[in-house]
Structure formats: C-alpha cells, structure tokens
Amino acid sequence: MNPADIAQSALPAASDVSLLSLFWQAHWVVQSVVIGLMLCSVWVWAIAIDKWLLFARTKKAADQFEHVFWSGQSLEELYRTLSSKPAHSMAALFVAAMREWKRSFEGQSKNFAGLQKRIEKVMDVTIAREIEWMERRLLVLATVGSASPFVGLFGTVWGIMTSFQSIAALKNTSLAVVAPGIAEALFATAIGLVAAIPATIFYNKFSSEVNRQAQRLEGFADEFSAILSRQIDERV
Fold first, then answer.
1. Beta carbons of 101 and 87 less than 8 angstroms apart
2. Residue 62 DSSP label
3. Residue 84: which region, alpha, beta or left (left: phi > 0; alpha: psi -120 to 50)?
4. Which candidate, 80, 72, 77, 101, places its Cα nearest to that of 235?
C-alpha cells in the first residue's frame, strides 16, 4: 500500500484509539506480529495451567504415598498394589527399585553382588526420566519469555517506519499523520510484553517447582536405598 494512502486512510479515524481499531488500522506486518504474539500468550497460559495442575496432583499424590509408605505397611503389599500402573513419580521410583530387588531375590541364582548399586542406578534413571517428563514444554516458556520482546520490537520498528513514510508522503509532521504509526508501534510493544512477562514468571516458578520435586525424589531414594541395604545385609 502507498504510504500516502496509509496516511490518508488513518486521518479520519485518528480519534478512534481502541485496541481493536488500532489492530485493524495497522499494517499487515504489524497485524501478523500481534496475532503471533497473542497465540504465543494463549499457549503460555495453557502450559501454565497444565503445569499448575500437574504439580498440584504430584504433590498431593507424593504426600499420600509417603503417608502409606511410612505407616508400616508391608513393602511387598505396597508393591503389588502399585506395580501394575504407578500413578505418580514417587510411586514409579518405588516400583522400579522394588522390581530390581525382586529380580535379584526371586531368581534361581540369587545374585546379591552389586545389588545395592543396581538398585541405586535404577532409581537414578527413574528420577532422571520423571524430571524430564516434568520439564516438558518449559522450554516453550523460556523461548516465549526471551523472544517475545524482540518480536514486539520488530513490530515497533515497523510502526515507526510507517510514521516516517507518512511524513515523507504528505510532507506534514502533524500529530494526525504521525499518531497512527506510533500507536501501531506501542501496540506491538505492549503485546510483546503481555506475552513475555507471564512466560518468564511461569518459567521461573515451574523450574523452581521441578527442582523441589527432584530434591524430594532424591531424598526418598536415599531413604529407601538405606532400608533395602539393611535388608540385603540381613539376608546375605
């Protein structure tokens, strides 16, 4: 579109400064930037809600499991209950360790050599797998948080260019000529920040939550490993 046409079309609507009006009056490049950033913002909130529910369920399930585990219930009975389908990270850790334990004690060779190290290795692998699962899509939050301001800045630069083109075409520096392009620029910047700020906050929040969950799993693994080690010493 010719810069003069852009400026002339913007003049009658200069008094309309609603967000929807700013969007429809913007250049198609700025519109594309705004739409992309809004989609990213929706994606960020969808991931945030999913992670919030996930960590709430994980914490509740871990609390319930630890209550049952330390209540004195038989490990064999607890294993039979959970072995078919462990429903959360701590149960998966317990089942993996118990499965390795039972393989060694129920086999004909009854090979106890290195059993403690095998159990610890199995638990380390399980913890790593569970942490990787909890970290899914956190990279999306980090990417949106770091890239959105720059994408918004691109829309800002384009809006400023539109303003200068309008000035050059009309040879007029009045506010009515400059305002539409400046409004586009500020609108793109604002949408970039709307996408980036929650993404950064959520990324830091959920990264901290993943670290807490990892420490809790590692603590349980150490305690459970000590229990199994005592039983190994009693049976050897």
1. no
2. H
3. alpha
4. 101
| pLDDT tens digits along 144-161 | 999 999 988 888 887 777
**Assigned token pair, 164:** 């200068």
Give the sign of the dihedral formed by CA 87, CA 102, CA 230, CA 97.
negative
Nearest CA-CA partner of 96 in 130, 57, 131, 132: 130
Q: Tens digit of pLDDT for each residue in 11-27? A: 444 445 566 666 676 66
Q: Please state, in angstroms and rounded to a whole number, the distance separating the CA atoms of residues 143 and 145.
A: 5
Letter string b/e over residues 203-224, b meaning 16 or more CB atoms within 10 A of that residue's CB: beebeebbeebbebbeebbeeb
In angstroms, the CA 100 to CA 98 distance is: 5
Q: How far is residue 160's CA from residue 42's CA, in Å, rounded to a whole number?
A: 27
Predicted TM-score (pTM) of the model is 0.77
Q: Which of 134, 187, 124, 133 is nearest to 156 (CA)?
A: 187
How far from 108 is each of 89, 104, 181, 211, CA to CA, in Å?
31, 9, 80, 41
